[in-house]
Amino acid sequence: MTKNKRKSLDKVLTLFGAVATIALLTLGGLSWWAYSFTSNNVHNQLASQKIYFPPKGSPELASPEIGPYLNKYAGQQLLTGPQAKAYADHFIAVHLAEVASGQTYSQVSALSQASPTNITLKAEAQTLFQGETLRGLLLGDAYAFSTVGMIVKIAAIVCFVAGGLMGILVILGLWHISTQD
Q: How many domains, the chain?
């Protein structure tokens, strides 16, 4: 390969590297913005609900189905996706299992509709509906979006690192081009 062809190739590759650097850093910035938006939104929405874990040593944490999962959050306000998952799976779900012998809202609602004068079934259906709705919101909105946000954060970091490395290669490419005769 002649020097002119080699120098032209070096320029093209360096230009491609510069474009890739800009693209990676831009993608990293957008990903970081998405992570910040998601985590702030999850935090603010949960904070406005004013949900608190039972205090340390309280009877609500005594159950082996609850305590081992929630003791680390005892007395704290529910503000994060992992906290939402723990609360939904190990507090709400445990209490819902105690209503109507572990039946779901769908099951109890069908029974309640078949027996419209049964006040107990109607109350159980309402309790299950409210509990399953809150549980679903905590898992589907708070925990899921929190998890997506963490994945996007990792992607942002990868883009920044790759962009930084590519930037170093571009600088080395420019240096190489400038030293060629």
A: 1
